[in-house]
Every structure is written in structure tokens, then in C-alpha cells.
Design goal:
The protein is globular, with a radius of gyration of 19 Å. It has one domain. The chain is mostly helical. The chain is built from 7 helices and 6 strands; from the N terminus they run E-H-H-E-H-H-H-H-E-H-E-E-E. Helix content is 41%, strand content 10%. Strand 5 and strand 6 form a beta hairpin.
Length: 170
């Protein structure tokens, strides 16, 4: 505990109390031989096997009294806030090369989604063939299975992990 805050790290060798995980899910099922390189994968993962291995790992943590929090559940809770929803939609749209018509359509569509639906879109992305309106030059130039909003298949990997202890990152 740091300064009365229940969340914080004072040591990198102390007892692990809480972890945040992401269970492999639909975002991995969206990988294809055509897009896996662009999404930083060497091949197509076996999703059901990854889920089984994840479930075993999460249970091993729970068996050692480690609290397991799930990123998507926390995201859903966060997106219940209007301010967080607006920030998430802005973040998703930032840096995307979309025409004005498609951008306006997606912003409106995302704004009408429930927190659960928006969390799915943020993690799983949106393919061109899933766009139900806002058609324009961009959608006509993309293949049906191209992403207008890319998925986040790397949520489950920790290969670029760091530890933050007080004010330093290691």
C-alpha cells in the first residue's frame, strides 16, 4: 500500500496481490493469413488452446490468493461514464485514415453503443463488411475484410512488460 492508496507497488519482489489479464478472445479469431503480419503475428494462433492455457494460468494465480482482474470487464465498467466513452471514442478514431463520411458515421454509431458493445469494438475492431452505413470513398476502396478500426490482438501478450515501483519504471 502506498500513501493510503490500496493500489501501488513498493517492491518488485513482494507478494503478488492483484493482476490484470486479458483472456484470448474474438480479437484473435479475426486474424487471417492476409492480416496477421500487419497485426504483428507470425501466424494464426489456436484460440481455444490459448484460452485453455490462459484459464489454467488464471486459476493458478487464484489458487495462490491473487486477485485476477480482467481488462475487458474493467473497460466495460469504465465506458459506463460519459466522459470515458467520449475519450475512448476519440482515442479509437485518432490516427485512423478515414474519410469524413465514414468518420462521422462511426463516431455516431459508437456513441449509441452500450458499454459492452463499445468495449467489443475497441478490442475486436471493425471490418469494412461490418460497416452498416457511412459509405463513401474509403469503404469502396477497401476489401470487405479490411479493418476500418483495427483489432487489438496483442492485448494478451506481456512481452513488452514493465514494472512501476513508486516513481520509477523498470
Amino acid at each position: 500500500m502506498t500513501n493510503g492508496n490500496p493500489h501501488g507497488v513498493d517492491t518488485e519482489v513482494g507478494r503478488l496481490r492483484t493482476v490484470m489479464l486479458h483472456r484470448p478472445g474474438p480479437e484473435l479469431k479475426r486474424l487471417t493469413p492476409r492480416n496477421n503480419d500487419k497485426l504483428l503475428f507470425d501466424g494464426i494462433p489456436w484460440v481455444s488452446r490459448a484460452q485453455d492455457e490462459h484459464d489454467g494460468f488464471a486459476q493458478a494465480l487464484r489458487d495462490r490468493d491473487v486477485e485476477v482482474l480482467y481488462l475487458v470487464e474493467l473497460l466495460r465498467e469504465t465506458l459506463a461514464s460519459a466522459e470515458a466513452r467520449a475519450a475512448a471514442i476519440d482515442g479509437v478514431m485518432e490516427g485512423l485514415h478515414l474519410g469524413d463520411t465514414l468518420r462521422a458515421y462511426l463516431v455516431e454509431a459508437f456513441g449509441e453503443m452500450s458499454p459492452e458493445q463499445l468495449a467489443s469494438v475497441v478490442c475486436e475492431g471493425v471490418r469494412n463488411d461490418e460497416v452498416r452505413g457511412g459509405f463513401g470513398l474509403v469503404t469502396s476502396l477497401l476489401a470487405h475484410d479490411d479493418f476500418v478500426v483495427p483489432p487489438l490482438p496483442n492485448l494478451l501478450f506481456t512481452r513488452d512488460s514493465s514494472v512501476s515501483v513508486r516513481s520509477s519504471v523498470r
